[in-house]
Amino acid sequence: MNKRAKPADQAGFTIVELMIATAVLSTILLLVTIVMISIGNLYYKGLSQSRIQNNARSIAEELSQRIELTTNQLPVEVTSSTAPTDGEKAVCFGDIRYSYVLYKQIGTATKHVLWRDETASGCNPVPLNVDKPSAGGTELITAHSRLTALDISVSEPTTITVGVAYGDDDLLCDDGALTPQVDCNFVGVSNHMTLVMNNSQPLVGKFKCKGKIGDQFCATSQLRIIASRRLTGGSSS
Hints:
Blueprint (H helix, E strand, L loop, with lengths): L14 H54 L8 E4 L8 E5 L2 E5 L13 E5 L19 E2 L5 E8 L5 E9 L5 E3 L16 H7 L9 E3 L9 E9 L10
Antiparallel strand pairs: 1-2, 2-3, 3-4, 4-5, 6-7, 7-10, 8-9
């Protein structure tokens, strides 16, 4: 009598082997995700830095051209705010006026930051926390940014310093403030930076990105250039 043949053993994965394979695959996917997020953050950081540097450069170059092409006495006047209430100031080159406010983020703390227009009535700044400060004017600061420095010397050659920062209040800090409550290690917006941004306390150092979560959406730039008049006034006979 023939005996029934036994079926051959069939190879397969055990539950332990499946769990190990799943853990390895999950680890690989997690590492790939972390790398992709890091690459994305670097991309957005570079984009933010490039945009803010271009903005600062365009402002500095425009102010430099105003100085270089004037034929009269250097037409620079800095006037502290009197009528406006948000700390506005103005720099004028003849009939071209630049009304500005420092440290306030455009679109959040104020509607305008650096407004260029023409004026025939002195160099008083226009209110910037309104939809349209003056007819025919133009905003020079890019979205979500703020002006951190605008200094123009009144001597020749003229030194122009322009600083621009991109990012929300909690991403920026004062690199000259050293106490634990206000320095760049503080999480959130320190009391010191709140006072600085409200123009009720001076900046100690310079604006800086904290380098914490969200740093890809933060960038700062400060340029200093020297300009001299190319044209000189005179009379012809």
